[in-house]
Design goal:
- Helices cover 10% and strands 36% of the residues.
- By secondary structure, the chain is mainly beta.
Length: 258
């Protein structure tokens, strides 16, 4: 079965600038039936250091991207210069929350016209994503890795579609999570690998995902190698593919993918 839900409140992202200078987000809200419209900035412009980290949408623990030197920035199995002593590299232990099994999500985004050309739609594996509120509005936070096509599309458009993946999608992890949408047309490659793609909320998504959640940005925070975006849930489709189980990170570890 399928259930589609839309919010009762109209929210439109008016401006999301992702240039290397200042960036701000402005939201126009109109309560259903109120007939009144109010416009107010929800995030003061901030200076962003737009370092390019390369690969897109890493899975948890994926360690190929350049990171800072601090212990808190080191993925499992990566050594910082400060951790090398006379006896050789010293492995940094993973944080305790790295042992937990969590759902695996993919963010799907549409292409954006920049005045010269249009970027292509893409999808990734989100590093971090979680629902955080129910009332007065359902809200989600997701982390966007700097320099990725998914992040660029999401920040420029102000919206994206979060996909709940099933175990059948585990084989797509190297494509969605360990390759760059700047270099590879992931939508075309997904189709090439036998997965159907359908448009939901105006964005190409996996036909057999377990559900999709339409998100609109209301706030952005630069936290280092990621931007954390606070989003309103403005719509969702609850899908129930027969015989499909949700994909968790424990399954990816079992398969040796992370």
């Amino acid at each position: 079965g399928m259930r589609t839900v839309r919010s009762d409140t109209s929210r439109t992202i008016c401006a999301v600038s992702t240039s290397r200078g200042c960036r701000g987000v402005q939201v126009t809200q109109r309560a259903s039936g109120s007939g009144r419209r109010s416009t107010a900035p929800v995030l003061a412009p901030v200076k962003i250091d737009r370092r390019q980290f390369g690969r897109e949408g890493s899975a948890r623990g994926y360690a190929e991207k350049p990171r800072g030197r601090g212990v808190g920035r080191q993925p499992v199995g990566v050594f910082a210069a400060s951790e090398v002593d006379a006896t050789g590299p010293v492995e940094i232990p993973p944080p305790p929350y790295g042992k937990l099994s969590v759902p695996v999500y993919s963010l799907a985004t549409s292409g954006v016209f920049n005045g010269v050309s249009t970027s292509r739609p893409t999808m990734n594996i989100t590093t971090y994503a979680t629902p955080i509120a129910i009332q007065p509005a359902r809200r989600f936070i997701i982390a966007l890795y700097h320099g990725t096509l998914s992040a660029d599309n999401m920040l420029a458009k102000g919206r994206g579609v979060l996909q709940i993946l099933g175990e059948q999608h585990a084989e797509l992890l190297p494509l969605l999570g360990k390759s760059s949408g700047h270099e590879i047309d992931k939508i075309a490659e997904v189709k090439e690998r036998g997965f159907d793609v359908v448009e939901r909320f105006g964005v190409p998504t996996l036909a057999d995902c377990l559900g999709v959640v339409e998100l609109e940005i209301v706030n952005i925070q630069d936290v280092g190698d990621h931007d954390v975006v606070l989003c309103d849930v403005v719509g969702y489709e609850e899908l129930t593919p027969e015989g499909m189980s949700p994909l968790y990170t424990a399954k990816l570890r079992e398969l040796g993918l992370i």
